[in-house]
Amino acid sequence: MFTKPTSIVAIYPGSFDPITNGHLDLIERGARIADRLIVAILRNASKAPLFTVEERMEMLREVVADYPNVEVDSFDGLLVDYAARKKATVIVRGIRAISDYEYELQMALMNRRLRPEIETLFMMAGEAYSFISSKLVKEVISLGGDISGLVPSCVEERLKNRLLGDAR
Length: 168
Ligand code: PNS
Known about the structure:
With 168 residues, the protein is α/β, with parallel strands linked by helices. The protein has helices spanning 21-33, 53-63, 79-85, 98-114, 134-142, 153-163, and strands spanning 9-14, 36-42, 70-75, 90-95, 119-124. Strands 3-2-1-4-5 form a five-stranded parallel β-sheet, sandwiched between helices. Strand 1 (9-14), helix 1 (21-33) and strand 2 form a beta-alpha-beta unit. The longest helix is centred in the middle third of the chain and has 17 residues, at 98-114. The protein is globular and about 65 Å long. Residues 13-15, 42, 78-79, 107, 110-111 line the site of 4'-phosphopantetheine (PNS).
């Protein structure tokens, strides 16, 4: 029998190394749809991160402090198993351009195969943010470019400290 969940718990998973204004836009929009939105950082990623999981969680917490229904967490292992443990029925992912689509489709279909009861909800990145990625932001700042407006100001400060250090 079909029963509609009375409360929607959604997971917004990712690397967030670091969070950008594109991520933040998605968090704000996702928080309007879900009753509870959990922003979850993957712990066991193979790529070497610039910031530790704890540092990324700290930045995320600072940035989402004004959203009462948004929490920050981290996870290991399969995303869908984590989502099930959190009683989440929705995974939120952002799509910036067609180049994101193939990878996202593959993940969404695999996740559906693993746990069909969990739905992936794709949201189009805001047009002002569709070119922003954590990777490019790190590259631009390390080469002396201006990243103001692309990441929250507390993140910009941390990036400058980490990547420019004494050279500032
Ligand atoms: O921000 P990213 O790096 O694009 O996020 C990727 C992420 C964390 C969503 C993805 O790698 C993931 O879900 N990893 C957890 C392991 C897992 O469930 N793998 C199977 C996915 S089909």
